[in-house]
Amino acid sequence: MDTQTTLIVVAALAVLALAALVFVLVNVRKKRTVHLKERFGPEYDHTVTAQGGSRKAEARLEEREKRVEKLNIKPVPPELRDRFLNSWRNVQAHFVDEPGAAVVEADGLVRKVMESRGYPLGSFEQRADDVSVDHPHLMANYRAAHEIALKKDRGEASTEDLRQAFVHYRALFEELLEVPELLEVKRG
Fold it and tell me: For the whole model, what pTM was predicted?
């Protein structure tokens, strides 16, 4: 083989290797995206919007997964679960007379359940990010409840807003406590 033929063969091999590398990288990225969309559901879209693009969002979601993997998340012990359920019933009864105060209490109770499960209690956004790894379908509601609680602090929340916040907190409370059927029976 002469030098020119050798160069053509080497160039062709380099192009094939580059094409194979691009194919593998695109495939890995697609698998990553599919995994994150399945894992995070609507939280994936929220994060894409918040981060301004899918690359940043996917990196952020992967960071969340890695962070939460390092935490010791566990179920609430039965005796503590019963105390939380009793506390929730009291907060729920308090809603009738003092809806604003009950929303604050509901938020505090949700945080206590998070803490008892092993979630660290940082800022609201950090809590939401951590919980979103295992409960992504509730994050839009959790954020909505938090926004309503902030509106309440500014004196801008209606009773209907507070009721909606309370419903959102209850859904997260039940999911974190992992016993929604108990609350359903006691409510009904």
Answer: 0.78
Please state, in angstroms and as integers, the Cα–Cα distance from residue 158 to each residue in 111, 148, 149, 154, 167, following that order.
23, 9, 11, 11, 14
**Structure tokens of 106?**
């509901």
Tens place of pLDDT for every residue, the chain, 188 residues? Answer: 688 888 888 888 888 888 877 777 776 778 888 889 998 999 999 999 999 999 999 999 999 999 999 999 999 998 899 999 999 999 999 999 999 999 999 999 999 999 999 999 889 999 999 999 999 999 999 999 999 999 999 999 999 999 999 999 999 999 999 865 554 544 44
